[in-house]
Design goal:
3-stranded parallel sheet, single chain, 4 helices, alpha/beta
């Protein structure tokens, strides 16, 4: 998902697009397409981790993974734990309480410590609200 395009002038400039991971490559692909509309001289890409499932091979990467693995980044830890919990349940009709219990259990089993409980509660509440909002928009 592209949240924000560059605020400055890109036309005629060399651009380096950086992301943490090339998983499917779809985010990089979409980002390159959007950046190209701004007419830069050149677009290069860089990621921390390149997974074998990516359809886009970045110009630069810190590590090329041999097999697909779930990666945890400090800036998206809660998002990752919640995504794993949802995958574990396999049901979009899971309650907020169930999702929190599973997320806390996963966090504990992964050795994640700190004030994760309150952060997970807030994130799950947001996820549940967003899920309800998007499902009501499609009906």
């Amino acid at each position: 998902m592209i949240e924000q395009l560059p605020q400055g002038r890109v036309e005629g400039r060399r651009v380096l697009l950086v992301d943490e991971v090339a998983d499917t490559g779809k985010t990089l692909e979409a980002s390159i397409k959007e950046l190209a509309k701004l007419h830069p001289k050149e677009i290069r890409t860089a990621v921390l981790h390149l997974k074998p499932t990516s359809v886009v091979i970045p110009n630069y990467y810190a590590e090329k993974l041999d097999k697909w693995v779930w990666l945890f980044y400090p800036w998206s830890l809660v998002e990752t734990v919640v995504a794993l919990a949802i995958k574990e349940v396999g049901d979009s009709k899971v309650t907020e309480r169930q999702l929190l219990e599973i997320s806390l259990s996963l966090a504990k089993s992964l050795g994640i410590r700190g004030p994760i409980s309150s952060v997970l509660k807030t994130s799950i509440k947001y996820y549940v609200l967003e899920t309800k909002a998007s499902s009501s928009n499609t009906n």
